[in-house]
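Predict fold of DUF3649 domain-containing protein; 94 aa.
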Amino acid sequence: MSSSWLKVVARILLAVGGGYFASSAVMEIFCFLLVALGMSRSDAVTLGIMFVFVLYLCLLLWVFAETTLWRSAAVFLLLIVCGYGFSSFVAHGR
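Predicted 3D structure, encoded as tokens:
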């Protein structure tokens, strides 16, 4: 097996798995901010889901457009840590 084949597999796994978790983490923050600005929860979740489909597509395309794999992995990790860390911080008192 060549090294380029493994790089393609790593990009596919990062794009599908990392993109899913990163976009769901961003959706948590987005929906929380919409509710904090006065939107009802159901409307915020509906708008957040529509936003996440576009974001997920952009993240998928960006992983394959980026020249280095580590940069996209670092951004995904940052989004995941910020999103889930924020939601655990907000929900800690409940």
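Residues 3-36 form the longest helix (34 residues).
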